[in-house]
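Example 3.2
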Amino acid sequence: MSAKERVKKIDKLLEKEYGKKVWKSDGDPLSVLISTILSQNTSDTNSQKSYASLRRIFGNWNNVAKAPVWRIAKAIQSGGLSNVKAKRMKTVLNQIRSERRKPTLSFLRKWNKEEIEPYLKRFKGVGDKTIACVLLFSLGRSSMSVDTHIFRVSKRLNLIPRESNLKTAHRFLNKITPPQKIYQFHINLITHGRRVCKAQNPNCEICILYSICRSRDKKLKHKT
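Structure, written as tokens:
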């Protein structure tokens, strides 16, 4: 069975377990970009708290762009690495503002994927995962973002080579996942990684993918 065929089979099993997913926007492109920067190297709970704090304190992205780094860092301290992320966000916002007169990425809705990717990659601290999140969750373009859950589960399922890193995994998964299935596959694969295929002590005995998992014997042995 080829990697593409395995993806289709896994997607069907995950859909049966977690339901069919229909795309919906998570917000405007700039808001998704900022929230993804905040999600780097922290938990979903912490990043959501820091994002909510940022919006509550500053109200809009223009106010964030004009604020001193220390104030931004204080607002997002619950997310960890607040000084690094504050500098990164302020730099990105001011760069956009200097080019567009105001901090907005709404114009990206009219661009194609091949134009958007290099544009966003110019910003310091914005890599493949962040760009994929903006493309998928704000603009509805097919781009597979690879977080720690997807990376771990994909390796265990032998969807990506063992020697893969996050960058090569991003490229490989985008090649083997049908574009129309990327949104659902992404959401359900993350859900499976959080609930069942955990980093420590994966729940292999209740896994919907157990019969096709290449790592199942090793994982069960690790648990016992």
